[in-house]
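tool=predict chain=A
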Amino acid sequence: MSIGNFIKSLQDIMRKDAGINGDAQRIEQIVWLLFLRIFETKEEEWELEEDNYKEIIPSKYRWNNWATDEEGITGDELLEFVDTLFKDLKNMEVDEYSDSRKILVKEFFKDTHNYMKSGTLLRQVINVVNEIEFDDYEDRHAFNDVYETILRDLQSAGNAGEFYTPRGVTNFVIDRLQPKLGEKIGDFACGTGGFLISALEYIRKNQEKEFTVEDLKKLGESIYGIEKKPLPYSLCITNMMLHNIDTPNIRHDNGLIDKVKEFKPSELVDVIAMNPPFGGSEEEGVKNNFPLEFRTSETADLFFVRMMYQLKENGRCGVVLPDGFLFGEGVKTAIKKKLIEDFNLHTIVRLPNGVFAPYTNITTNLLFFDKPDYKVEGENVTKEVWYFEHPLPQGYKTYTKTKPIKYSEFDLEKSWWEQRIENEYAWKVSADDIIKSNYNLDIKNPNKQEEKLESPEFYLNEYEKNYKEIVEIKNKLKEELELLLKGE
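tool=predict ok
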């Protein structure tokens, strides 16, 4: 089944069900079914690979034992079975000695729901899901594209869009951070796992030797994410399993509940890539996990502080932030002061409008900084900040859902990155000038060619000229159609 047909078939069935209300519920419904389908394939693999393997999901709830028969249970009987399945998987007994895969299943179903009210329609959805052969490499590889389509749908699923970062952005950030096998890679508000998946793919692609089973295990252990909301957490877990990470190291939790000054050396991270939720507000208890000068309700600011405290020496960070962080004052000034003093803020890529449309039209930026392993007392680590203004493709006025930003567009930045020469898109500002402006990082492009404005008479003449051309074309088409109708 083609990618488009798979998605369309599921959509067409679910639209008939009275229990599905909107895109977010439709996506959650698809994801728990996919999780069970994928987990069945994994259990089959583990049974062959591991001696004395004990099944994770109880036998009667394993996909092959209830879902694969097209003429199997349906209607009210199916709804009752699924209701019991959810209750039992949510209530599985686990402790510190339990298999981590069992804990994963329990955590996955803790906040997941079955929204469909028609057992007959649910059976139809299950039959469509069965058409994907996850044990076939080509089908599994193709399904990654299906899953990416599901993730993109989040952008139009109300507030759920905040959890999806365009793949072009995640791939570019990771490409610049260049994570290596064995380095710990973190995202403390990982959403659907976009940055972490990009990191996985980057490391696999750039590994000099052939990737082994041991390498894959090491890679899985080095990826670390936290996600607060149930739907993106479920999407992230399923996405990781599709990429052969059997026990994803993803915490279902609030990434702001840890005391930032109490991180142990083992908890520090080599590479951080994030798009923290901005515009949110945290309660007083959460703010107490941060030093007094950094306490604020703004979630993006708090996540940025966490990044600074959890980054290892010689670590690298790439983060998406709105314009408001660049020019903001108060706590934002205190954060930027620490950033300039203790880190090397070397690059800010200024993105144009619409990158996160339709979820938000707020203009965003990519900030890249490193943490050195030494610091000269009394001197700022950051000496200068380079800016790069990412241009819209020719003919674009803004990005949209149907015309998203593409990874290939960042070739402009990548070709400039090493040499760092000023041009119409790139300029640099000294740290001293930034400090003099009270740490305002909202520096406009001084090399940008402003569009020349003509007189009103010029635009009126252009309009009349274009209108005249349109009338002439219409008249010509009309004449040709008349000739055709006359048979001439």
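Strands lie at 185-187, 223-227, 250-252, 269-274, 311-322, 344-350, 364-370, 384-389, 426-430. The chain is about 45% helix and 10% strand.
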